[in-house]
Amino acid sequence: MLLGVHLIVRNEELHLAQCLDSIRQWADELIVVDTGSSDQTVQIAASRGAHIVHMAWADDFAQARNFGIGQARTLWVLVLDADERLADGTDMLQLRNKLLHSKETAYRVVVESTVERQCIRHEAVRLFRADQGYRYVGAIHEQLATSVSGAWRDVDGPLSDIRLQHHGYEPGELARKRTAERNGCIIRKLLEGQPDNPFHWYNLGVTLSQQAKAAEASAAFARARAIVSPDAPFRPSLMLDSARALLASGEEGAALELLTNESKRYINYADLQLLYGECLERQGAWLEAKQAYTTAIEASQVDNGLYLTESDVNCRACTALAGLERRLGNQKEAARRYEQALLADLGWPEALEGLAELLHEAGGSDSAIAQTLVRYAGLESKENRAGDARAERNGVEKLRSLAHALTLIGAYSSAVPLWRQAVVIASASASEPADAVASFSACLIRTGQYAEAAEVLASMARDMGSLPMTAGMDWALCSWMEGRRLPLSAEHLLDASTLLLCQAAERRLLGHRQHAAADASESGEAVGSIGSEGGADGIDGAVMLMERAVSHGLLRIAERLAGSSEERFAVSLHRHGYTTAAADRLLRMMGTGHLGARGLRTLGEMLYGRQLYSESLSLYERAVQHQPDDEHARLGAASASIRLAVQALTEREEERSAAAWLTEERKRLEMAVIRLESLGWRTMRSGAQRRRMSDGGAAEADFLMHDREG
Amino acid sequence: MAARRKLISLCMIVKDDEQGLARCLRSVQGIVDETIVVVDSSSVDRSADVARSYGAHVIERAWTGDFAAARNAGLEVARGEWILILDADEEFSEVTAASLRPLALDGHSVAGWLLPVWNMLGTDEEDGATINPVLRLFRNDPNHRFEGRIHEQIAVAILRANPDARLALGEVIIRHYGYRPSVVAEKNKIRRNMELLLQAVEEEPDNPFHRYNLGVEFLRAGRPLDALLSFREAKKTPSFNQLSYAHLVCKYEVRSLHSLGRWKEAVDAAEEGIRLFNDYADLWHTLAESMSRIGRRHSAIMAACYALRIGQPKGIYHTEDGMGSHRTAYMLGILYEIAGSYDAAAHWYSTTLTMKPSLLPPLHRLCRMFRVVGRSSELPVMIERRFTLSTEEASIKIASVLLDSGCTAEAILWLRRRAAEPAWGTASSSWLVLAEASHAAAEGHLAEACRRAIRAIGAVSSETPGAVAGARAGDGASASASASASASARYSSGEYGAAAAYERLTSLRRWLRAVGVGSDEEFGGVDAGSLPLSSTDEENGASSAGYGLAPIMKGAVSTNDAGLLEQVLKQVLASVADGTDAAAQSGSAALAAYADCHLGEAERLLAARTASSATRQVLRSVRLLLAGCERGE
């Protein structure tokens, strides 16, 4: 007989049928080693004609595998896991022919795993001759090996055409089977015997990461790093996973240091370069990040089989690079990279969002932008979707991404129908993800459909049993806009602090004054405090609600919520794009000498935006004098002075001469100011906010300008 | 005369270059025994007359589009034992010219000498040069005739006549000015060469030499893509690596890729070239450059180190001044600076200075870098340890760099430490006063800075009343003319003399007054422009016109006086927009200094909050950029 398929199983009733059905017509023999199933596993295997052997589980995968191989009556053995299946499109007939005449003794196969949306691909030796004396070694992550003069050596061979699909890493399943924990037990046991084995420490780190124990994982990875040999094949993955664990436990500095070193060594490891770039970008090192992303893209285009890599790394790196190019003002390059990302992965949400912003910045109309986005969204026609639950779920996701991108740029009327469509399709399947609901409800609020928004939020609350804080605040705002009080159900659907906050705000809106302290004229410190506590919570809470209201353009309610926190209100107006109204208020406050560091800085930024650098500089200078440790104001002051120099140099170039030193000096200064932008001292604008700045929001803010101090 | 044995005949061909010809003939006077100049008969200037005035034998001849033929016309009449070939845009370097005759006298077994041609990129050697050994002195023999229409060659003929002929390397340096971009453009040489070369390539498409030369012309003409294609074509020749100029093809291929911004390919090309010419420092240097551009800083550093280990190429390699030595060391410093390894960077900057003491940029970078990273206090001792300074000028030069880099305290320290040395003079004490006044200003003690400046200027004007425009009554009578003259001489000794310090002090005082520090009364009768400026120093005066803005700006920030700051900003902006070039530069630098004050503070704040290293690195790099250090990218 030519080909036997070998599995070891325990309680695999969920997957086993699918696995065996995908392969059994090509196998001359199915050998299933059961290590003590208590479910239908054995019956399923038997019904597919498998030869079943029983064996007691001894915390050792290799032992179980070897037991199965010992039973083989075929020339070749293909090893599968129960949660894998043969991918469609593998030409097994041809493979069998190849095996008949093959001079090889082993082959590698491709294994594709799906984790959330991401596909991970790796290669493993799974197909080999049964008559070579090959054996598995290693209690977990067992490796096929051959005995050469008493020592075990890994077996390798060329790549075959077999592709396997693996479902074992999906988080839901992970929890169900508690694989991670089981593996953890095995590994700890192994470590007792071999405390100096870096691979075991690495595996321990991986299982701890899967259990979301980032700090413990970090410690295990650190042990592995300390003793791993420089050429160990798992070293690249170890470094990447280490960095991720460090990031997850908040040790950004250590992660960056690690990545800085390792990115030099593994230039072609796309995933590592991408993570390095992300770290750098977060810290404002844009030029360096750009370099890392470019390296990642290049690396992702050559599959050298050396590294465990995720299939969407190219798309993610392109999107990240595009985002940087956009902020650096290289619109053309940004567009090219977004397109590259979307062509690699149609409908990739972040790329779609970025592209929408880019098109909006360039002045595209909503309908034109929507049309372009649809082309890249990867929506399939209904006919293709019908009936297939997976395709259906996928379709809804794409629709939501598209709707979300349009919401971000404030194209609400284009977005709302898409949101509704997504809701209709999705209603049959699982509940909506929270961020989608939040985005949908924002869309409704901003188009004045408060009742429907409240309904969407309430239904999410019922589905999930509770609401995130921001969604809770939105719900409250919707009720108030409808002229109603907080619904009774809020009392058990909102968490305690959100509820307290909303109730306090509601009393204020109804005109109840809690304490004399709330009155600004009486107390300078507790300005704007609402709620009986009157502490920091109260202030922050009220400001958060006000902020939220401003973000939705609900300015009247926001003004009342702000109470006497005038400066904060003005700053918030600025932050969300109501610049004219904000400037008006801030200038008025400055006139009466009531403007603090925050307001001065905000005003400085506005003037900077209008290229009034001299004025901007003096405001920043005053902000610094108010508050010397405000680095944003310092960065602003520095940027304004450099802009001033650039302006003066440009003037000189135009009017007097175009000497080489002038151009050089100007370029150098421009480069410096661009580098400073990356440190995040300026407000980043979304499309929705840009609309308000140009004039779309003026109507909402009108009353702030005219009926002041009535 | 006739009986005298003729040892060396200089043979030249020339067209419309009377000035160059004169320079060239001057440089060979007393060295060659006869001069034969073939003048293109279409020449319109006085080239032939100039040649005759130096006693040359002039042959006027129509241009046939063939360089070899023109040269050979000269060789036909030469009677010396040796033929020396020079072009009108070349000259002998004075230092080495004397060793030419020994080459001809002693070279019994030698058929020809290769002499290093330095292709000057500027007017003097400090601007850099490329160095190319070329066969320029060879035995006079009827078989030795030039071949090749453009880029005519003699070596082939010599070796054909005697396959065992020995060619040796001589030390006499020929300076060639023809490659200076301005001169090249002037003469439309590029276009002419290109036409000839294109024709040659058409006639002999397989000749790699034409391809190579064409590539060089393309590169010079700013057409890197065409250049690249030419070089790649040349590389296709069988047994390419046997060609004497193969190493240059490799280097220029990398250069073309640099111009095209194709850095990654440049790395590959450089590596390929290194496989053939492992000991050619230029290739390692360009490899390092390419690698640093694609972010492979670590590999770049390794490659640069390797170039340094090889050292400046010798023998048949064509190289550029500083490859494998000071230029590579400077690059290494920059690479380390970008990487944030400031000690290593400092080491390489000072190594650069040891290799080429006249270079100022590395010293500037060193000082600015140490100021930005807050380690400027180490500078005086470090410079002292690294360099042996014998002259007062050298010491003041360093003080001046320290001042320009914003290291005022260190400039004071540096100068005070020199006071006990024999090289200390009036100039040094003037610069010390300047450093003290600048430092006072930068610390925010503007009134004190003003007082110091006035006192110093007052002292000078009373000493040299003859030179003071509005001399005060009484002083003029008592001063003798000779005292005045000697004082003037003392104060006008060039860029680093006392006068230069006083000009800066005047400028500082003028700016102080402009921002409202010090009353007019305090200035007394001493007005701007009343300093002892000799006519040659006027340029220096103009170049120091912006001095003082940066320290005043720094001082204004530290005083926290909004009104003062506004005043300073007003002056700075006005000087950038309407001042002289020097004032505009200083104004721009002052704005950068203002930004630096805030960025330095931001850096300190971030460090205190244990913020990320990358963010601080960004701030550092911006500050270095503002200080005038390019990132090299």
Automatic annotation (TrEMBL), chain A:
Positions of the UniProt region annotated as Disordered: 687-710
Keywords (A to Z) from UniProt: TPR repeat
Residue ranges constituting the Glycosyltransferase 2-like domain according to the UniProt record: 7-101
SUPFAM superfamilies, sorted: Nucleotide-diphospho-sugar transferases, TPR-like
InterPro entries: Glyco_trans_2-like, Nucleotide-diphossugar_trans, TPR-like_helical_dom_sf, TPR_rpt
Keyword Transport: no
Domain of life the protein comes from: Bacteria
SMART domains: TPR (SM00028)
Pfam families in UniProt: Glycos_transf_2
TPR repeats: from-to residues: 597-630
Protein name: Glycosyltransferase
Automatic annotation (TrEMBL), chain B:
Pfam families the UniProt entry points to: Glycos_transf_2
Keyword Cytoplasm in annotation: no
InterPro entries assigned to the protein according to its UniProt record, in alphabetical order: Glyco_trans_2-like, Nucleotide-diphossugar_trans, TPR-like_helical_dom_sf, TPR_rpt
TPR repeats: 326-359
Source superkingdom: Bacteria
Residues in Glycosyltransferase 2-like domain copies: 9-94
Keywords, alphabetical: TPR repeat
Protein name as it appears in the record: Glycosyltransferase
